[in-house]
Amino acid sequence: MPNDPIRRKSPEHKASNSVAVPGNTQREYAAGWADYELLDAGDGKKLERWGDVVTIRPEIQAHFQPGWSWPDWQARADWEFVELSSTQGTWKKLKPQASEHWQIAYQQLQFGLKLTKFKHLGLFPEQQANWRFIAERVKPGDKLLNLFAYTGAASLVARMNGAEVVHVDSVKQMLDWTHDNMVCSGLTDIQWVLEDALKFAKRELKRGNHYDGIIMDPPAWGLGAKGEKWKLENQLADLIETARGLMNPGAFLVLNTYSPKVDLQDLARAAAPCFAKRQLEIKQLWMQSQTGKALFYGNLLRAMA
To answer: How far is CA 274 from the centre of its chain?
Structure first.
């Protein structure tokens, strides 16, 4: 399935049937690092620095005034993504020597980036909040399952910290991209699975396999390998229930959602049959720009078995 998330239209959206969200609703902020920075956001766009390359990309959540002027943005940027439809577009080169392929680092990890027609570059930097969480909890020898794994930043963070990683994605190009990132990062022995993530997880459940950590970053919608339709709001409870069955005692689950139809209440409702409130952490994911603009990136569930 294509992992091309649609951003939520409003972080304040609530489900009609209220369910208590464990604890206080919190914002968790991802942090930039030496090779990535959210420079500014506003007027439906975001300005980002990836190593030495600066891009302008559409961002539905940037419904406010930017900190810098549009001429300032264009003077800084190497590339601007121009939307041609709701799902695709093209890149406009703003500097003659702008690179189309380049590499950035996160700690000791290396990620190859490139321009795609879906506006993505090969990394979701807001997931730094989850990379941080994974690094704090993974121990050498732990078994970790990464579903809907895209280009594998979470897989590489877990492997760097000694975990045995099973990396699942239904798109071969994503597995190849992650493999290249693994090799460039000096890592080995990630197990690759080219398959529908939920179907694989259900088979693992039947096989009696268990994990010490499970990461899921499912798309909001898409089509499976055989054309079957996927809508996250219809699969959410099944995803969480299946993941719960795969968890060892003390294991963790990370579920990130970008869907406009899945809010904090929906996460709490879907998780309630599987986890006690004290086992759950449900938050909003944010990142702050250099100019002080706070940008919303979706909702986040973490659970401990």
So the answer is: 23
- Ramachandran region of residue 243, left (φ > 0), alpha (ψ -120 to 50) or beta? alpha
Q: Which pLDDT tens digit goes with each residue over 42-90?
A: 999 999 999 999 999 999 999 999 999 999 999 999 999 999 987 789 9
Tell which residue, 162, 173, 106, 105, has the closest CA to residue 139. 162
E runs forming strands in 31-125 = 36-42, 45-50, 53-58, 79-83, 89-93, 101-106, 109-114
Q: Are 112 and 153 in contact (CB under 8 A)?
A: no
pTM: 0.90
Alpha-carbon 305 to chain mean position: 22
From residue 119, give the alpha-carbon distance in Å to each of 32, 130, 264. Answer: 20, 22, 27
In contact, 259 and 216? CB cutoff 8 Å: no
Q: Tokens 């993941």 appear where?
A: 243
